[in-house]
Specification:
Largest sheet: 8 strands, mixed
Structural class: alpha/beta
Bound molecules: nicotinamide-adenine-dinucleotide
Strand order of the largest sheet: 15-14-13-16-17-18-19-20
Radius of gyration: 28 Å
Helix content: 40-55%
Number of helices: 30
Number of strands: 22
Length: about 725
């Protein structure tokens, strides 16, 4: 990094104003502007220079990066801070520098284009006036709570003053960035202008401010209407209590940062003593920043950043082929979902199905999802039409010669898939790729249907495709590096998170999930009730849903079918509880026929447990003989046990990072635990092995729960 850090002051003469100082930010050697300690120190030095000058009439913060204003604090630095004292020093420094901006005796402007997040947003809040471009890259907000921390450079104190209590709580507690339009609507920016006019409009804005006196200001939100006045004033306790309820509902109490942020806002709202307010913010920041939860959330952030830099083929130099158009075979649940996410990201899609009705359903599915986005003002009607026009379909192979990749999502049958893959390849260019979305069949075996198996791989999406971020990319024995790199890049282009896995039963995620679901069935067999087990996992462990609700989602027929495949592949260690086998003759398929462990309404919303299921499965009334510890440990430790085998014996993935990313993105494994293997390391693999051995013996589970040789050898998954 150069000595000036890529920050500099540039003077510019503006008519009717005089010399205006532009504070340009363009961090050297970095793709983004971020606030590290050296950058903050340089910023302080430059601000001191501005304060000393009698020449400057106004100060304007501007980024020279194409689509980034300031991305936020430097996460590498946050990760390296390991004591409360170090956090205190860093936060005090940030607060004092942003106070300098607020206290300059000339008016200050932020000219915002691109991402303006975290510390970047706190910087613009310390300015007097804010103008932004309406570009889609302009997104402003305070995402700190997503990392288990809270805005610490004055964001909790200044944002409520600028946009009012309710909007500030929405922004800070959810930790989401606002698009330029929304940011302007809530008052986070004063002006919104076309990207090409940003500079000219900023100059004009400065001139206008100087025409009316060139004053500094401390923007204070003024509620309009009686209700708003009451809620921002005497009835603010209602807003706080609603916000607290909302946070508890969204986080089940597992995430301390949003609650702490709420407490800070409550204590500092309208406090006239800035020093004391910032002190409160700093103390609370340091409290949450030093928790294991924050470290785990930062770990997940690192995992997602890591993927952005990867190619899917470590150590190999290949250039992925650019994919402009894809084909999808099968316009059912998965094919329709994949068509939506691809077209949503601007990729041309050609759907092929045997059944024209399936095609019509897929168009409708995509259109409905975009219409919802239009209602939420995420896209406009022009964008909606553009996106819809990207999808075409038919019952033949028209246009397939123009496609770079075809994703197969037809019936789960090896013979049919192999035949269709061969037929499809004959209708495509020889360099084009075919990938399968199979969830349980061997990719290597399936590739035998393709004339060039090197051009064939798995691309396993999860259901519902538009919601689930993970895609497992499965490398068959003959899949080429070029194919993996191209599909890896395509997955990212589709806004999904790719993890490359080796071919094997259940690949990674389903291989780990199945023992967990199978164990839940044994708990049921042994007298536990469905609701109690599910509640333990949700309320005490933090899973998004319990194993029975999950089985209903996946489909009970699918669970049984895959468990049987696993039993064939893995032998004794896979077992089906008698009640699971009994399910087969009950006609219960789960959510898809609204008949499973739970009741479902006509909109497919899950209701209460269907109490008739116990009798239907030949079970007596549950007595709930086990505590939450045993129920949770048996399920979660079974996953860890299987993971040790998948990881060390079969090398299904190469690093523990990939396991954690896949489990969080593919199953919703509680992010605050950092992932399955971070969690395993926190309780220690030796403890997992001892407990499993105990349960295996006590519950006569034999090989099903016996710790694997691989697990017994692990001291830490992360080394
Ligand atoms: N549903 C899930 O949760 C899920 C999740 C991951 C992977 N998968 C896998 O995705 C694939 C599709 O599953 P789905 O749930 O979307 O099935 P689906 O039954 O909803 O859709 C399959 C579609 O393929 C069409 N089809 C059948 N044969 C065809 C052919 N020869 N050419 C063109 N179209 C043909 C059918 O008409 C149907 O519209 C399966 O391999 C499945 O294992 C499913």
């Amino acid at each position: 990094m150069s000595k000036d850090q890529g920050l500099k002051l540039v003077s510019r003469e503006i008519e009717d104003v005089g010399t205006v100082c532009f504070f340009e930010m363009d961090l050297v050697g970095e793709k983004v502007n971020k606030l590290s300690t050296p950058v903050m120190l340089k910023m302080r030095e430059l601000l001191q220079e501005v304060a000393r000058s009698t020449n400057y009439k106004a100060l304007v913060f501007v980024s020279k990066k194409p689509k980034i204003f300031i991305a936020g604090a430097d996460i590498d630095e946050i990760r390296a801070l390991d004591t409360k004292e170090k956090f205190e020093t860093a936060v005090s420094q940030g607060q004092s520098i942003f106070n300098m901006i607020e206290d300059l005796n000339i008016p200050t402007f932020a000219m915002i284009h691109g991402a303006c997040a975290g510390g970047g947003c706190e910087l613009i809040l310390a300015c007097d006036y804010r103008i932004s471009s309406d570009d889609s890259s302009t997104r402003i907000g305070l995402p700190e709570t997503q990392l288990g921390i809270l805005p610490g450079f004055g964001g909790c104190v200044r944002l409520p003053r600028v946009v009012g209590l309710q909007a500030a709580l929405d922004v800070i507690l959810a930790g989401k960035l606002l698009n330029a339009k929304k940011a302007n609507k809530v008052g986070l920016t004063d002006r919104l202008v076309h990207g090409n006019l940003l500079e000219a409009q900023t100059v004009q804005y400065i001139q206008e401010i100087f025409k009316s006196g060139g004053k500094k200001r401390r923007k204070t939100f003024q509620p309009v209407g009686l209700v708003a006045k009451l809620l921002e004033g005497p009835l603010k306790f209602v807003v706080f209590s609603q916000a607290k309820k909302g946070v508890l509902k969204a986080t089940s109490g597992f995430y301390p940062a949003p609650l702490k942020a709420l407490e800070v806002i409550q204590r500092t709202f309208k406090m006239s003593d800035r020093t004391r307010a910032l002190e409160i913010e700093k103390e609370s920041f340091c409290e949450v920043a030093t928790t294991e939860i924050s470290k785990n959330l930062i770990h997940i952030f690192d995992l997602t950043e890591m993927v952005k830099k990867q190619s899917g083929v470590p150590g190999v130099q290949v250039t992925p082929t650019e994919v402009k158009g894809i084909g999808i075979l099968g316009a059912g649940t998965m094919g329709g979902g994949i068509a939506f996410v691809a077209a949503d990201k601007g990729i041309k899609v050609r759907l092929k199905d045997l059944n024209p009705e399936a095609l019509a359903k897929a168009y409708k599915h995509a259109r409905d999802l975009w219409q919802k986005l239009m209602k939420k003002k995420v896209i406009d009607s022009y964008q909606l039409t553009q996106k819809i026009n990207l999808i075409s379909g038919g019952t033949d192979y028209a246009d397939f010669k123009t496609l770079d990749v075809v994703i197969e999502a037809i019936v789960e049958d090896m013979g049919i898939k192999q035949k269709v893959i061969g037929e499809t390849a004959a209708n495509m260019r020889s360099d084009a790729l075919i990938v399968t979305n199979t969830s349980s069949l061997s990719v290597t075996e399936m590739s035998k249907g393709h004339p060039h198996p090197a051009n064939f791989a798995g691309m396993h999406f999860f259901n519902p495709v538009h919601k689930m971020p993970l895609v497992e990319i499965i490398r068959g024995e003959k899949t080429s590096d070029q194919t993996i790199a191209t599909i890896f890049e395509l997955t990212k282009k589709m806004g999904k998170m790719p993890v490359v896995v080796k071919d094997g039963p259940g690949f990674l995620v389903n291989r780990l999930l199945l023992p967990y679901m199978a164990e839940a069935a044994f708990l049921l067999q042994e007298g536990m009730s469905i609701e109690v087990v599910d509640q333990f996992y949700v309320k005490e462990f933090g899973m998004p849903m319990g194993p029975f609700a999950l089985m209903d989602e996946v489909g009970l027929d699918v669970c049984i079918k895959v468990l049987k495949i696993f039993k064939k592949a893995f032998g004794d260690r896979v077992d089906l509880a008698p009640c699971m086998l009994a399910l087969e003759s009950t006609g219960r398929l789960g959510k898809k026929n609204r008949k499973g462990f739970y009741h479902y309404d006509d909109k497919d919303y899950r209701g209460e447990v269907d109490q008739s299921i116990y009798q239907a499965l030949g079970l007596s009334t549950p007595t709930n003989p086990y505590d939450s510890k045993e129920c949770i440990e048996r399920g979660v430790f079974a996953m860890i046990n299987e993971c040790a085998r998948a990881f060390y014996e079969d090398q299904i993935v190469k690093t523990p990072h990939e396991v954690d990313l896949a489990m969080i993105m593919g199953t919703g494994f509680p992010p605050f635990r950092g992932g399955l293997l971070k969690y395993a390391d926190s309780v220690k693999a030796s403890y997992v092995a001892t407990q499993l051995a105990g349960y295996s013996e006590k519950r006569k589970a034999g090989a099903r729960l016996a710790p694997s040789e691989a697990l017994k050898k692990v001291s830490n998954f992360y080394v």
